[in-house]
Amino acid sequence: MTTVVLVIAAALACVAFLPTRTLSLPRPTRRAAHPDLRRAIPGLVDALAAALGSGLSLSLAFAEIAPTLASPLADVTRRVAASLALGARVDVALALYAPTIAAQDLAPLTVVLAGFARSGGHVAASLERVATLLRGRLALEEERSALTAQARTSAIVLVLLAPIGAAFFAVAMPDYGATLVGDGLLFLALALAFEICGALWLAYLVRRSTHTVDLASFLDAVVVGLDAGLTFERALAGLVDRVPSLSRGRDARRLLADLSLGVPLASALRAFATTADEARVGALVAASARFGSPLARLLVIQADAIRATERHRAEASARRLPVLMLFPLALCVLPALLLVFLGPPLITLLR
What's the confidence (pLDDT) of residue 110? Predict the structure, then answer.
């Protein structure tokens, strides 16, 4: 029985290194919303756009759409409506959504509604852009997760093979367990070391295939600020301030600091860009600032193109993943299996 407990503990320790769910966007500082709840957020934005388009005030719009939402969102929306009715600022009232909605999903909505509360105007088109942004981001995350689901499951099964097999033999053959934790303790330690190395290797491969810098969603969030009447710098600053865990957030803050110190926009963007896509976007922003051409539509086109490219990259990475997993299988998992399965019988024969 002691052997079974040790083997199960080793299995849990190995599986702890494996990711059960990998997000395409950076890890939020707060608890992320449940997937079903995240799917309801674009509907909230669409309903809010319709309510504001009919002439309601911001507080009345939130109060009217609250009964149409699912329970967690409905309760928070009522509190947001009450906070706005009492005179709270838009960003303070929308901060009530923070435990329910991830920061990267809440930031574009806050930028648009803060601009609407400050200067008025037609907000429906901007809110539609926010809903499109949220749907596109969620669809890309789900597609990446689906493409790597088989690889994640295979990785967990591979890591569990040796512990499950050892537990089975320990129950079926009492001498096996006594030998494994007695004379075969060295074999058990080596097998555990191979298992941990294999789990770390597999986890690295899975995370590398799913974790990418989502430049398309980053651009969409900036476009939302541009549609709300902000300049590129103000839109980027609003996004950075509201999403502390923003991908490339440190580089974006350095870009804003350079601009505030008077560094030319073209030079600051060249320092920010580390990939060909970022360099192309930086050139578009610099050209738009130089010639006065509208930037939002250019960034929308670039975001759509980058998102399509990211889908192709995710598909190619998912196809390469099973081949890459053969190396930890051969170099770590199989040696652990041989040590656990053949070690105690070999010791018994040598006696």
Answer: 83
Q: What is the pTM of this model?
A: 0.65
Tokens of 346: 């070999």
Name the percent of the chain lying above pLDDT 90. 4
pLDDT at 79: 92
- Which residues in 239-250 are b (16+ Cβ under 10 Å) and which e? bbebbeebbbee
Q: With a cut of 70, which residues of the chain have pLDDT below it?
A: 1-36, 119-121, 209-214, 217, 221, 228, 244-248, 350-351
Distance, in Å, from the CA atom of 223 to the CA atom of 216, rounded to the nearest integer, reads: 10
| Burial class (CB within 10 angstroms; exposed 0-12, middle 13-18, buried 19+) of 60 | middle
* Cα 196 from Cα 326, distance rounded (Å): 16
User: How many residues make up the chain in this entry?
Assistant: 351
**CA–CA–CA angle 31, 36, 37 (5° rounding):** 55
d(CA 182, CA 198): 25
